[in-house]
Amino acid sequence: MTNKVVARNRRAKKLRSKSIDLSTNRLSVFRSSQHIYAQIFSPDGSEIIAQASTLDKELKLKSGSNSDAAEKVGTSIAEKGLSIGIKKVAFDRSGYKYHGRVKALAEAARTAGLEF
Q1: What digits encode the pLDDT tens for the residues 52-86?
Q2: Angle at Cα 66 formed by Cα 101 and Cα 78, nearest 5°?
Q3: How far, rounded to the nearest angstrom, does the alpha carbon of residue 66 sit from its chain's CA centroid?
Q4: How far apart, in whole angstroms, are the C-alpha atoms of residue 88 and residue 22?
Q5: Is the pTM for the entire model greater than 0.85?
Q6: Which helix (H) or strand (E) holds 107?
Q7: pLDDT score of 19 more than 80
Q8: What is the pLDDT at residue 34?
Q9: Contact between residue 78 and residue 109 where contact means Cβ atoms under 8 Å apart
Q10: Facing residues of 30 across strands?
């Protein structure tokens, strides 16, 4: 693996270990070059409670690689979480910088009602 991937995995591991100590549900984000994915995990990480991505047909997106698409995914994951009864989560950015698409997803989830 390249140094860039190793560094991102190291940052992600550190963030996940801190979110496990909080013992709350975790909102995890994965970003690829074409799509963005968000999942809400149980506190121990063994179960996926809700998920949303730019591949979902219900979002009807033309492009999955821009900030507008990330905002729609953030709103969708927040609505799914709130419908299940999850109001507070720990945000896991998976080692990515809090910038661009990751920031757009997080802010949309906050405005839709999730707390983190």
Answers
A1: 999 999 888 888 889 999 999 999 999 999 999 99
A2: 55
A3: 15
A4: 11
A5: yes
A6: helix 101-112
A7: no
A8: 94
A9: yes
A10: 37
Q: What are phi and psi of 115, to 5 degrees?
A: -115, 125
CATH of domain 3-112: 3.30.420.100
Average pLDDT for the chain: 91
Location of structure tokens 């990480």:
45
The confidence band for 2, taking pLDDT boundaries of 50, 70 and 90, is confident
| Residues with Cβ within 8 Å of residue 62, at least 6 apart in sequence | none
User: Where along the chain do its domains lie?
Assistant: 3-112
Phi, psi of 31 (to 5 degrees): -120, 125
* Per-residue confidence (pLDDT) for residue 6, from 0 to 100: 92
Task: Tell me the Cα Rg of the chain.
Answer: 14
Cβ contact 104:72 at 8 Å = no
Contacts of 7 (CB under 8 A, 6+ apart): 95
In this structure, what token pair is assigned to residue 78? 């927040």
